[in-house]
Amino acid sequence: MTLQRILPKGIYQDRLVRAGNRVIDFGWSSNIIVDRCRYLLAAFMKGDTSIGIQTLKVGRGLESWDSISPESPTRIIEQLTDPSPIDIPIGSSQIEYLDATGKSTPGPTQRLRITLTFDAGTPPIPSGKTSYPLREFGLFGLFGTEEYMIDYVRHPVIHKQADDILDRAIHLIF
């Protein structure tokens, strides 16, 4: 008997609000659920001390990605490429269950939506620059005290200026 592997999947959408309420909608794109997410799930099922989604890390990635498409990440990736990503804590109020049609529901399902708003000044603009170049992000949980990546995305650069607001929605399906 051959076991069929059903992979968890994820999608995300970014909406950038610029001065004058000009909205740039980047549409929905896929993300990759990484192997360490499965470790967190297994630890939870065993009853070990795993804790789900805690932070979103955003990073600058590599400038070369702007001219040459970056290599697709693999499921074994464990950290962002940026050696000093920005950590954004995620509270339980930012995570909700979704039904099969994508509507919020009170009870547990196999679908989650994580919503975040990066207000003006988040992430902070580096000294001497006019924007923060966002190129990658990942969700992280905890196993004991060690961070474990859950999902990961490399995306075309978004130059977030000081007054911009970025809304990011992430859907995970298990």
Secondary structure layout:
Layout: E1 9-18, E2 22-33, H1 35-46, E3 50-59, E4 86-89, E5 95-98, E6 104-105, E7 111-118, E8 131-143, E9 146-161, E10 165-173
Antiparallel strand pairs: 1-2, 1-10, 2-9, 3-4, 3-8, 5-6, 5-7, 7-10, 8-9
Describe the structure.
The chain has one domain. With 174 residues, the chain is mainly beta. The chain has a ten-stranded antiparallel sheet. Strand 8 (131-143) and strand 9 (146-161) form a beta hairpin. The protein starts with 8 loop residues before the first strand and ends with a strand. It has one helix spanning 35-46; strands spanning 9-18, 22-33, 50-59, 86-89, 95-98, 104-105, 111-118, 131-143, 146-161, 165-173.
Secondary-structure-based class equals mainly beta
Report the helical percentage.
under 10%
Mean pLDDT: 93
The first-to-last residue Cα distance is 23 Å
Number of helices: 1
The run of helices and strands is: EEHEEEEEEEE
Oligomer: single chain
The domain count comes to 1
Question: Total number of β-strand segments?
Answer: 10
Task: Going across the biggest sheet, name each strand in turn.
Answer: 4-3-8-9-2-1-10-7-5-6
Radius of gyration: 17 Å
**Strand percent estimate:** over 45%
- Report on the biggest sheet: 10 strands, antiparallel
Low-confidence runs: none
Choose one word for the global shape. Answer: globular
